[in-house]
Design goal:
Length: 287
């Protein structure tokens, strides 16, 4: 059987390293391949998912949203998030789409163990695909407050509107804070939150930009758990600054592993060998 990673580009991905090791470890006969797909070839690659030897795929930037129109059904939270990162080619021939980033993030926070999302104040930086997944996980877990800090507030408002059916609990405060230097709404949200999540690429290896932080470092506070969804480098400039003020930190590797484990379980129907996947991912990052 074949499973592919559909994205553009995909050569930097470490998913093959830990997914192939997981297939081999449980004796599941499948090959995890890189299917680099420019946008104009997406329809053709999506059609190939229906071939009998195809078990499914992972979807990454820039196709997580566009891929929705090529599947036959979409899992509930993925439909609200408006993006899929996993496809299963089911035995009845149908293509089912999922967003395992949502459960990947929720599990990463759960396993970290010290700051559960329930009843906490969460601030998310960014309003793209990953921010949507983190916001969906936060609402599902029952946060007390959710603030989306984004340089395009209108996009963040759409995010909250789209996720409203997840049932924002009575008493949950969900709002948008425009993100710019001098914005008191964003500063207050970031200073006072229990869990802060960087869902922008600022701080990523090879990311070019004016700054290596998505907001001024002075806004960080020691009482927050600071999560960066970036896993390469493992210690981003944001995490370094957060540690320097005494905050606890978490990088994006646990989320990557748990979203991968959830995809693996949907493809194979077997428990994922999570510790092996983590080890293989770390090895791949060191190369
Ligand atoms: P995306 O859809 O392109 O969204 C990126 C967001 O970041 C957008 O809201 C963008 O704002 C904002 N942004 C970019 N540069 C900014 C800056 N200088 N200041 C403020 N905001 C800025 O990307 P994505 O898929 O959400 O991914 C975001 C990050 O999460 C990436 O680093 C990705 O690798 C990581 N990620 C990790 C995992 C994991 O498993 N650990 C999973 C998914 C994603 P505009 O819309 O205004 O450009």
């Amino acid at each position: 059987m074949r499973v592919g990673l559909i994205g553009y580009p995909v050569s930097h991905s470490i998913s093959p390293a830990f997914q192939q090791a997981a297939f081999d470890a449980v004796g599941f006969d499948a090959r995890y391949e890189l299917w680099e797909t420019p946008p104009e070839r997406l329809a053709e690659v999506a059609a190939r998912l229906r071939q009998p030897e195809c078990l499914g795929a992972n979807i990454t930037i820039p196709h997580k949203q566009a891929m929705l129109r090529f599947v036959d059904e979409v899992d509930g939270s993925a439909a609200l998030v408006g993006a899929i990162n996993t496809i299963v080619h089911r035995q009845d021939g149908r293509l089912a789409g999922y967003n395992t980033d949502v459960e990947g993030f929720a599990r990463a926070i759960r396993e970290d163990g010290k700051t559960p999302l329930k009843d906490t104040r969460v601030a998310i930086i960014g309003s793209g695909g990953a921010a949507r997944a983190v916001a969906a996980a936060s609402l599902t877990e029952g946060v007390a407050e959710l603030v989306i800090c984004a340089r395009r507030p209108e996009q963040a408002e759409r995010l909250l509107d789209d996720l409203a059916p997840l049932g924002i609990r009575p008493g949950t405060r969900a709002r948008v804070a425009p993100l710019y230097e001098g914005s008191s709404l964003a500063e207050d949200a970031i200073r006072s939150c229990d869990v802060l999540v960087n869902a922008t690429p600022v701080g990523m290896a090879n990311h070019s930009g004016d700054s290596d932080l998505p907001f001024p470092a002075e806004w960080l506070s020691s009482g927050s758990l600071v999560c960066d969804l970036i896993y390469n480098p493992p210690m981003t400039p944001l995490l370094q600054r957060a540690r320097a003020v005494g905050a606890r930190t978490l990088n994006g590797l646990p989320m990557l592993i748990y979203q991968g484990a959830a995809a693996f379980e949907r493809w194979t129907g077997r428990p994922a060998p999570v510790e092996l996947m983590r080890r293989k991912a770390l090895e791949a990052l060191r190369v």
